[in-house]
Amino acid sequence: MKAQETEMAFIKEGSFVPLYGVVSKKPVEVKSFYIDIYPVTNREFLDFVKKNPSYQKSKIKGIFADKSYLSYWSTDFDFGNAKPNSPVTSVSWFAAKKYCECEGKRLATMDEWEYVAMADTKKIDARTKKEFNEYILSWYEKSRTYENEIGKTFKNYWGVYDMHGLVWEWTSDFNSIFLSGESRKDKSTDKNLFCGSGSVNASDLMDYAAFMRYAFRGSLKAQYSTRNLGFRCASTTKPKI
Fold it and tell me: How far apart are the C-alpha atoms of 147 and 166, rounded to whole Å?
């Protein structure tokens, strides 16, 4: 039995107005789902590559990962000086997606991830709280937080850790907002979010922390892997143990 198979939080359905799509300012509906309490760790990803050789550092195909894939690992089965319980990073979207599928799960959608991430310790939506945004922004200014172990940040309303303060995370539709505005029921493609002036499109100008996440996601391609980018899994139904 793997730890992640039991360490999932139930997220009750709800709605919120996201950063994008402010022409209508219509709330996005999020159906109930489950999400990993912690990001996937080096130890867990090591178990995965042992069972899936094609995703090992030396064997993965270039179309599925760039040259930075698991760059800090010494070998296919050695994550070097990294801690076993630190989040695995330098993993491509393809590898993250495959890992979740092998667990009988999936990557969270961007809406699901943002819905969980807007909670602090007591409120489902803490985005208007100054101290909450200051905490997130202060993390963006810190370096090498990916070296920390999971579970060292605050436990949010849903019982989920490390949504902020540890690593950036892949979502299933990480760059969808920049591909088609129509898919987001908006009148424009929202490509203006790439530049600073695009922040005027934000549903709350104080929510610069979220704006940075959207801009970061929009700069990614599925084969990219960076040292501060990890992932966690989600599931539409309760996972089988």
Answer: 8
Rounded Cα gap, residues 78 and 80, in angstroms: 5
Cβ proximity of 174 and 141 under 8 Å: no
Reduced to 3 states (helix: H, G, I; strand: E, B; else coil), residue 96 is helix
pLDDT tens, position by position, 92-136: 999 999 999 999 999 999 999 999 999 999 999 998 888 998 898
Cα three-residue angle 217-220-223, rounded to 5 degrees:
135
Looking at residue 239, what DSSP letter applies? P
Q: Distance between CA atoms of 190 and 133, rounded to whole angstroms?
A: 23
Quote the pLDDT of residue 134.
Answer: 87
Helix 93-102 to helix 42-51 angle (10° resolution) is 80
Q: Identify which of 116, 118, 112, 121 has the alpha carbon closest to the alpha carbon of residue 155.
A: 121
Nearest Cα to 174, choosing from 212, 112, 220?
Answer: 220
The dihedrals phi and psi of 234, each to the nearest 5 degrees, come to -135, 170
Q: Which is more confidently placed, 211 or 196?
A: 211
The band of 217, judged by pLDDT with boundaries at 50, 70 and 90, is confident
pTM for the structure as a whole: 0.85
